[in-house]
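Protein modeling request. Please complete all fields; requests missing the sequence field cannot be processed.
Requester role: graduate student
Desired output: 3D structure, token encoding
Chains: 1
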Amino acid sequence: MVDAFCGTWKLVSSENFDEYMKALGVGFATRQVGNVTKPTLIISKEGDKVVQKTQSTFKNTEISFKLGEEFDETTVDDRHCKSTVVLDGDQLVHVQKWDGKETIFVREIKDGKMVMVRLFTVQYILKTVLVRTSWTINTTALYDIHKEYLINC
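Delivered output (153 residues):
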């Protein structure tokens, strides 16, 4: 349930955030501010909507959404996205799409802390990343699918 995520959360650590901002095209000065900013995230429910407020000395943002419904979002770095947030088991998955690009935020609660993994992808980069990270492909299953396709043609 989304209730597990409701509350006030303070950033205590972040890894590879500068690389993420570089990939987004965020300028040097803004990245420097972003790297030292420790925002507070407030998640609450108001009726059938989830409200997410991010507060920092740099900038404050707020989004309000219904789970599973697309909404317009302006990010802290002023990207205009079509976003969707869903609850997938114990994970809150937030997908932002803009200009053919996509960022996926996967939040989950571990040992009383909210852990968020942020994935930035562009379709052609995604394929490269899959290969370079040694993801295995079940070739037997692919062969069976291909064989079934040929039989049915």
